[in-house]
Amino acid sequence: MSRKVFALTCLMLALAGCADSTPTVVAGHAVSMLYDPGRVGGLPVSEGPSGPRGDLPPVTPRVAGSDGGEIDRLSLLAIDDVEEFWTQHYAQSLRGTFKPVSALVSYASTDPNTPQVCGADVYQLPNAMYCRRMDTMAWDRAKFMPTARKYFGDMAINGTLAHEYGHALQNMADIVSPLTRTLVREQQADCFAGVYLQWVASGGSSRNRLSTGDGLNHVLAGLIVIRDPVSTFDNPISISDEHGTALDRIGAFQTGFDGGAEMCAEIDMGEIRKRRGNLPRSLFDSENPQSDITLDEPVLATLMEQLGQIFNPANPPSLSTSAARCANGRQPDPVAYCPESNTVIVDLPELQAMSAPSDQSTLALPQGDNTGLSAVTSRYALGVERERGVRLDSASAALRTACLTGVAQRRMAEPMTLPSGGDGLMLAGGDLDEAVTGLLMNGVVASDVNADTVPAGFTRILAFRSGLHGDIDGCFGRFP
Q: pTM value?
């Protein structure tokens, strides 16, 4: 069963009817423009092609080491676009003077004879990077960029190089020092990438276009898994994992997309802590992640008991792993909520497949047990909403469900003793990443009772985040 998105462009045509191939229109509203399912960062949600507007130009001698192929042509197009944006807008927001990076280098990480880049060996280093000491931008055309493009689309190249250009901007504007933590540097660079891509999405670029629906979703997904080797003052290329969690990185990107470059320059550890709010530090500990567990019937029974304690409904939803469909014919994909029987139904083999740990060394999105746990939690949340007497089939319901799931996930990040005497499931480092990438790529957690979701992963994640930092009543107030 495919997951549909609310056909926002057909809202005004609902009475007249849309074409048979158009998803069913469900009316809904949000109380804030920030959570408006029809807008992203002030722009209308749009679908359509993302990537170059026309033919790719040839690679100029400006790119050292190039083979003249398509990846280098896409990369040069992206660099030209990023530089045009900052040439026009740098002085409006940042100190100093904008100056294009001195050198661009393309290399093949698969070639043992590839020349050094930035004074370091890049054989078997599939990545993209900015080398401060040599003011050089470099990318691997053989493995890294093609893989990023394959999984996240042409605009993943723009997103990657816009992030790298963010590191160059830090030095131009003198907003970092040798003592600046890597996490701050990376969050600022993600933010600067968001500023540039908002310009593309708004139609400002003559070279590229970006839809604010699926196109932006894929760029955000790429942002989560594409991590550059960090060039430090002492080491021209060093590998670091201190880029932040998926929630951190998308939050920084959204700061730039929504607020502009001034806000990127203000990111420091204080701002990052404020964005993380009162969430337990264990959720941001990528060095000590909790081991994934297999989602079987006993684990799901524990989750249902735990959710009963968190939400305290008068009539808790029941769980079924044997029901093939709801009374109205709705099938689990891999989960569903049946309001007529107040039951969460689960296709257990499919849920286990959704929750199988991914190999992130291959640029796979973070996936694991909390991918499935958060999906089941979202269907339980619909039972809580049913008890409140609110509508379950709307865009507002989809975002409310994501918000309530965030509330539950926050509570599950701390020890909990269940009424039965056992311990509740406890989230740890990396688990939120699994929920966030699910929100981006399949939208289960931010879907209504009909499994329809809002088109922008940007907005789905904002709703989920509002629950992480809020409470149950806040979700019902924000998404009536």
A: 0.88
Number of Cβ within a 10 Å radius of residue 93: 17
E-strand ranges in 11-127 read 39-40, 43-44, 51-52, 63-64, 103-107
Question: 108-146 burial by CB neighbour count: b if 16+ within 10 A, else e?
Answer: bbeeeebeebbebebeebbbbbbbbebbbbbbbbbbbbb
User: Is residue 378 predicted with pLDDT exceeding 90?
Assistant: yes
Sequence-separated contacts (24+) of 15-22 with Cβ below 8 Å: none
220 and 458 in contact (C-beta within 8 Å)? Answer: yes
Average of pLDDT values for 132-155? 95
| Angle, alpha carbons 319-335-386 (nearest 5°) | 65
pLDDT per position as a tens digit, 99-126: 999 999 999 999 999 999 999 999 999 9
- Residue that the structure tokens 């932006």 belong to: 216
Annotated domain spans of the chain: 8-30+288-478, 51-276
Q: How many CA atoms lie within 13 A of 30 on its CB side?
A: 21
Which pair of tokens denotes residue 412?
């599950």
Which residues does residue 401 pair with via DSSP β-bridges, in sequence order? none
> What residues contact residue 34 under an 8 Å CB cut-off, 6+ apart?
462
Max Cα separation, the chain?
70
DSSP, residue by residue, 346-394: E-HHHHHHHTSPP-GGGTPPP-SHHHHHHHHHHHHHHHHHHHHT--SSS
Confirm if 108 and 140 have CB atoms less than 8 A apart. yes
Q: Is the peptide bond before 61 cis (omega within 30 degrees of 0)?
A: no
Q: How many angstroms separate the CA atoms of 155 and 273, rounded?
A: 30
Nearest Cα neighbor of 68 from 76, 77, 59 is 59
CA dist 190 and 51 (Å) reads 19
Token pair in block for residue 264: 């990127």
pLDDT digits (tens, 9 = 90+) for 306-322: 999 999 999 999 999 99
Q: How far is it, in rounded angstroms, from Cα 67 to Cα 198?
A: 31
In angstroms, the CA 131 to CA 117 distance is: 9
Q: Provide the pairing of β-strand 335-338 with 63-64.
A: unpaired
Tens-place pLDDT, residues 73-85: 999 999 999 999 9
Tokens of 219: 């760029």
What tokens does 446 get?
Answer: 């931010």
38, 279, 301, 425, 428 from 413: Cα distances, Å: 32, 8, 18, 9, 6
| DSSP element (H, E) containing 259 | helix 246-259
Whether residue 37 contacts residue 448, with contact meaning beta carbons closer than 8 Å, is answered with: no
Return the higher-pLDDT residue of 239 and 384. Answer: 384
